[in-house]
Every structure is written in structure tokens, then in C-alpha cells.
Design a protein that fits this description.
Layout lengths: L1 H9 L2 E4 L1 H6 L11 E4 L1 H10 L5 H18 L9 E2 L11 E4 L17 H15 L5 E4 L3 H9 L3 E3 L17 E3 L4 H5 L4 E5 L2 E7 L11 E5 L4 E9 L3 E6 L18 H10 L6 E6 L5 H15 L5 E6 L15 H5 L4 H11 L6 H14 L1 E3 L13 E6 L6 H8 L7 E6 L15 H9 L5 E6 L6 H9 L1
Parallel strand pairs: 1-2, 1-5, 2-4, 5-6, 7-10, 13-17, 13-18, 14-15, 14-16, 16-17
Antiparallel strand pairs: 3-4, 8-9, 9-12, 10-11, 11-12
Helix pairs in contact: 3-4, 3-5, 8-9, 9-11, 13-14
Amino acid sequence: MRQRKKAVADTKLFVLDTNVLLHDPTSLYRFEEHDICLPMFVLEELDNKKKGTTEVARNARQASRFLDEIVSDAPHNIEEGISLKSDLHKNSTGRLFLQTSFIKQELPHNLELGKADNAILGVVIGLQELQPERSVILVSKDINMRIKARALGLEAQDYFNDKVLEDTDLLYTGVLELPHDFWETHGRDMKSWIKDGQTFYHIHGPLCAAFFVNQFVYREEDDAGFYAIVLEQNDTSAVLRTLTDYTNSKHSVWGIVARNREQNFVLNLLLNPEIDFVTLLGQAGTGKTLLTLAAGLMQTLEAKLYSEIIITRVTVPIGEDIGFLPGTEEEKMTPWMGALEDNLDVLNKTDEDAGDWGRAATRDLIRSRIKVKSLNFMRGRTFLNKYIIIDESQNLTPKQMKTLITRAGPGTKVVCMGNIAQIDTPYLSEGSSGLTYVVDRFKGWAHGGHITLLRGERSRLADHAGEVL
């Protein structure tokens, strides 16, 4: 009995708020050897949220299914706790407790009775009094809930398991500056050759282990610069290939030229038919949408690589009905697609010799090959030979991102763009955004690439506002 008490004292007891389960239904299995407790108000809120076709409703139903599987195999004496270990979740060795009569709700007199948040706080207080030797911790995605808990002297924390990175400064950028002595240390046994107008280098050295496939490397000297992409790498060697210079007007893409180093890297990714998945991060005005559209039009209307361009973006809150707006699906999405229209205006003005009639005809041709789709209707679809652009993808959860990317069929390219500093979806952060998730998971894949754009090219006013405001 003493050993059992000691083992219990060594583990923690986490009380989960409803928003944790609605954010990640698998959170039930994410606490390893520690125990979790669900207050009755959490079960009631799950029941209230389960109806509908939104992502929240789907997560509520999935959480209920998980709970049903756990409880159905439970012993009759549920107060002893139900094991969370299963064949699929072997690391989850803790137990699940449901709020029963032995957990008394001790609410301070100044907290309103009947309110879900206060009822959950009362359970935490009751558990702490019942097991004073043990750490009882409230886990909630709600900042105000955590503040209220700490004001009552309770331990509270955010749900961290969904975070890809604790510090987004460590997020993969897709770009690496080579040290000044790179050629001295890595070019001794170097082999080089030319193929299709581009130069390849086979180098050896310790820095090769830090490279990722499809990462861009550069070295800018006073007289000239070296810009290349990593094609192959291992611990001791790597193969680099020089880039097409899209800063030169003779390589313009639908009348657009790259204005800085990162934009040149982006166009090299977007126009590479071997790259199926591209992620672009950057502040407003860095050129993400313009470059992506220009590359899409070039490959759809001129190179005929793709049959059409499909553009979608998150309508925050995601998954809610857009039926209150008049018209077809595309017309309903029009208010969300201001950025598309703005960039099409820029691209349509690049041909100065076409005249008004020519530009009007070009615009009609472009619009006929661009389809605007709502995320609400993406489930179950398969896109063949499409160029898919997902805008504002920082507002997607990892699960939603997976749902969208897996729609891609043969010959389809997917481009995800966003700014993780502008997240509007509740309970998502820079570390847990679906965009952060795919950037981290796809780095080094032979058919994927990523660039973080650093320099704004919109206007001097926009650049200054981004710095000082």
C-alpha cells in the first residue's frame, strides 16, 4: 500500500478543460504515465458541441468515441481509474478518472455557480484537497481560465503536446548562408560538371551533414554571389546545383522578376516540376501571393503542366456555413479573395503592348482557368493535374492541413502560404499552427521545399509600418 501511494505521488493528475479535447481528441493519450480527470461539465460540453459539420463538432464526436472505447472496457468500480493503455497507445500508462460522487466541488463564494469554467475549477480544488501529496494541474487552451486558476492558487498550464516547436525562431527557413571559408574547407576534392545550362558541384566536408535536400545555400561576395540548391546530402558530402536567375528580366515569369534573394529562391521552387509541395512564410508584402500566381499562370497557360489553378483560403472561423452570402460557391468566396483580385490586376498590367482589349481578353482567359473553392467542401475530393494554392494557411490546424494536402492526386502541386504572426483561429499559436507543422515535417523531402521570405517589396510605407507598428 505504501508503494502504491508513493507511485501515485510520483505521477501527476491533469484535469482537462473541454477546449483541449475539442482541439486534439487524442490528448486523452498524450500524458504518458500521468493520470487525467474529466469533470462532468466537460462531458456535457462535448455533448453540446457534437452536432454539425464543423471541425469542432468532428473533434467532439471523435473525443466521445475515444471515451466510449476506454470506458466500455473499464471495471465496474470506476472510482479506481480506467487504464488508458492500449495496443495503439502503449506509451499511455496512466489512468482516466471521471468526476463521481467522491470528488466534491469546493467553489469559493465569489464564483458563480452553474458556470462550466467555475465548475471545472471546483473539481480541481476538490481533487487537490483529496490528494494533497500529489500535483493536480488544470490543462486548458483558454488563457483566462488559466489566469483564474492561478488566482485561486491552482496549478494551470497550456496544452503543449500539439506544439511542433516551443520557439518559432528555430523553425526551418529553407535558406542557409555559407561561411566565408566554405570553399577552402569543402572544395578540396570537389567535382563539377555542367548539364542543361546549370552547374553541379559534388562537395565534401562537415557542413554537409547540416544540409537538407532542397535547401538553398548562398555566399555573397563583393564581386559575385554563389546561389545553389541542395540536391543530395549525407554526413560527409552533398550535391549542389546552381539556380536560374529570375532577377534577370530575360527569365521573367508572367512579366514578374524576383526583387530579392528569397524571391529568386521561391521562383526556383515554384517552377521546378519535381517539387510537388511548397510552403512559403513571410510578412505582408513579401510577394508570396504574387509570385505563386505568376508561376501558376506560367505553368498552366504556357507550359500546360497543370489544367487549372485552384485557390482556397481559410474563412475564419473555418468550417462555418458561408450560405448567408448570395450566389454560387465562388461568389460566396469572393469577399475573402481580395488578395487574389489585387494580384491579378498587377499581373494583367505586365504586358504593356497588349492594349485595353488585349488585357481584357487576357484577364478573361486567366479567370477561366482559376477556380476559387471553399475549404468546407474539400473532404473526399481528389485533384488531378491541378495547381493548388492554400492562402492564409497559418489558420489551419495540423489535422485540417493533412486533410487538404491529401486531396492532391497525380500531377498536382500544392503551395501553402501564410504568416504565422497573424493567426486568427482560436487556440492556435505559432508553435501549433498547421503551417508550422508541415514546414517542420516536410523539410528534407526530395519533392518538397520551403522558403521564409524576409524582405517586404510592397512599398516604403508598408515596410516602415511593418517595422514600427
